[in-house]
Amino acid sequence: MTGNINTFKNLGFTGTDIRHIAVRVYPYAEVLNGKLVKAHRVYTGEGSGDFHAGNETNFIFASMDEGWVFHEFEMDGITWEGISIYPKDGDFTVAFSDQSRRAVILNDACNKLYSHRYQIVMRNVATGELATNDPVVDNGDQEHT
């Protein structure tokens, strides 16, 4: 893969891939204390929600629903800006695109190829309700350096 990246760079391009990911929040029913309750879930794309990259990639996650923004949250002693990524190997950064929190940019340097587990947390600006996704990782346990 590195040869392909170098070819693009030699032609004057950055070699960085940019991917736009539409994030939507839909009504969802879940069981709580034996009763069906109304909730919401975050959805990204089709299928399992996996994203694959073999070279440096900027994933731009954007909220398609004006009433929902990415929510800053803490997990395992780390503060995340809308999206958490594990394992935290230092090969990526996650940040809100601006103060509106309608988009998050995940930059994956792809110096190490891992299967990462990610989670998105969004907040309804009117009600404060939180919604999450936790996609299944179906891409195996690849790990390369």
Q: Would you give an account of this structure?
A:
This protein is mainly beta and 145 residues long. The chain has one helix and 13 strands. It has a five-stranded mixed sheet, with no helix packed on it. Strands 4, 7, 11 and 12 form a four-stranded antiparallel sheet that branches. Strands 5-6 form a two-stranded antiparallel ribbon. Strand 1 and strand 2 form a beta hairpin. The model is unreliable at 137-145 (pLDDT under 50).
Q: Secondary-structure map with pairings?
A:
Blueprint: H1 2-10, E1 17-32, E2 35-44, E3 57-63, E4 68-70, E5 72-75, E6 78-81, E7 83-86, E8 92-96, E9 103-108, E10 113-114, E11 117-124, E12 130-133, E13 143-144
Parallel strand pairs: 1-3
Antiparallel strand pairs: 1-2, 3-9, 4-11, 5-6, 7-11, 8-9, 10-13, 11-12
Which features characterize this protein?
single chain; 145 residues; mainly beta; four-stranded antiparallel sheet; 1 helix; elongated; disordered C terminus
In short:
The protein is mainly beta and 145 residues long. It contains one helix and 13 strands. A hairpin with a 2-residue loop joins strand 1 and strand 2.
Q: Give average pLDDT, whole number.
A: 84
- Kindly provide the radius of gyration, computed on alpha-carbon positions and rounded to a whole number of angstroms: 17 Å
Sheet with the most strands: spatial strand order = 2-1-3-9-8
Q: What is the helix content? A: under 10%
Uncertain runs with pLDDT below 50, 5 residues or more? Answer: 137-145
The tally of strands reads 13
Structural class: mainly beta
Helix and strand string, N-terminal first? HEEEEEEEEEEEEE
**What portion of residues belong to β-strands?**
over 45%
What's the main sheet like? 5 strands, mixed
Through-space gap between termini: 12 Å
Q: So how many helices?
A: 1
Shape: elongated
